[in-house]
Write a structure and sequence with these properties.
Blueprint (H helix, E strand, L loop, with lengths): L9 E2 H16 L5 E3 L10 E3 L2 E2 L5 H20 L11 H23 L4 H13 L10 H13 L11 H10 L9 H15 L11 H5 L6 E2 L2 E2 L11 H8 L14 H8 L17 E9 L4 E13 L7 H8 L1 H12 L7 E6 L4 E2 L1 H12 L9 E5 L5 E8 L30 H8 L7 H19 L2 E9 L5 E7 L7 H8 L9 H13 L5 E8 L15 H17 L2 E7 L5 H7 L5 E3 L6 H13 L2
Parallel strand pairs: 2-3, 8-14, 12-13, 12-15, 15-16, 16-17
Antiparallel strand pairs: 1-4, 5-6, 7-8, 9-11, 10-11, 13-14
Length: 614
Amino acid sequence: MSLDAGPAAVRFEQVHRALALFAQALHGESVALRSDDGTTADEACVRLPAVAADFARPADNRGAYRLAVLRQLDRVAAPVPNVEGWPRRRLLQRVFTRLEDLRIDSAIARRYPGARSDLQRARSLALARRGAWPSPGRPMHAVVEALVRFTLGVEPSALGADPTLRRVLALASAVLDEAADAHDSLRAAHAICACLEEPGSRASRLRDGDLAVPPGDAMSDEGFAGGRGDADPPDAAQADEGAADGGWNAALAFSVDVAATAVADARKPAPLAARKPEPATGHAYFYDEWDGVGHRYRPDWCRVVERRLRGDDLAFLGDVRGRHAALAARVRRQFAAIRPASRERLYRAFDGEDVDIDRVIEEAVERRAGHQSEGRVFTAQQRPRRDVCAAFLVDMSGSTGFLIPPPAGEAAAPAPEEDDYYLYSPRVAATAVREPPRRRVIDVAKDAMALMCDAMHTLGDRHAVYGFSGEGRHQVDFLIAKAFADAWSPRTAAALAAMQPMGATRTGAAIRHAITRIAREPARTRVLIVVSDGYPQDADYGPAPRDPGYGIQDTARALREAEQAGIATFCIAIDPAGHDYLRTMCREDRYLVIDDVTALPEQLGKVYRALTTH
């Protein structure tokens, strides 16, 4: 369907943010939505068409989109069981899919009364698009056609009085029960197939080829014709009939047979190395992205999935303090110089160094007047609290898993000769065992964050630590190791220790989400420090794959948005070539390039002091 399908047409870009929030509210967690352009076969997401234009009003087309989300959500929530040894594989697929349509439609009508009008409208449209009944010489096709029309709301009495058909419809009615699930649909499909194959029934006398494929469902071993496999496309007549097959408009992706495909492939599990990891769950947010080529924002272009990090290494904080005792002391001295030297007097305190005579007299007068006194008659000296909050945004891309080279001048011990007398010496063996393991960039970044949190906890400034990574604009991961409201403890440090190298570096979207979180903090001074080991890049970050210029311009615009929101920003690059792109992204005094990653903790302390003292 073309993108200019009429004034009532609704495009996916116009409604995908609202639909994603709608799906998240119903499903309880983030759900990925994709425009069904035929380039992806990911069954873990909801696939929707690029344009909805089947109805005369835009509101009805939006309702069709919502209904498509509802139907596919139910399938995601109720995965199809793995079944072995089922007869008539293709017929079972066909019957099972129709029963699932019926079960899901009835569940939608019960759970979401507001969707009933959209559901009825779509079913009426699909029923009107059904072709003529199959010829009398094809009884199997007539039974299956009657089953499809039954799933579209046609009364059983209007479908005929054939005994086999009545028995099939009675078995299909079992999935209308409120407690029915995909297992019940599968059991009913088995029963219907067995009924059609019973000796003496008219359907059982058909040839195997006629029994396997009902009209409009020409299939290959790769899947449904016209689907995502490499099968030849059907002719025009088959395409028109298949578009309305199952009672749903193919342009609206209502006939996406996710459940049937899962059943078909259940007997062929993918090898362990080829299986995809389970999609991350969390709350999804949508952000614009700056297109430096077209000099415009792409609205709601990136989907940021926010989730908490959980860790169980409760010894991480103590281990960092022990390994970096001297460095931790230097960082603490830096932060000690930040603390306000002056003190402010606190009046009406319950305890303190001095007694406020005026308040004592007021308390005595209140008691003589019959009022209850509070006893706040002291004054105390205390340091003023700094009105500062800071967030650290740490790059968790795959490149942070690189090993750090040994310090200059520290050569590795040569391997002993095979005939060396000391080869079996206990002293040499003990030295080899005590050789410290090589550390990665992410390990040093985690140590730096732990030392910073230790120092800022002593200082009293509110702080948070976030990580970011992702794969494409639809899955930008934003991971919370420590939120502003979290207390600094070994449990929080364990979440920080759970940071690991992940995917790509879509920095602009991560910065925009960090801005949203920092803007909620009622602090006068707000700071965002980005720590990365390379320039922004992602598979679809720009018109060309991994285009560095596009990502740099988007990140520069995101940093400018932070400054406009009153948030001071600073970028630290653990990259010798960082000057090449940081001078484009940041002001000259708002970035730092370090060659030695082990200097990161001390440099962070200097940067933070410069940003938060005026």
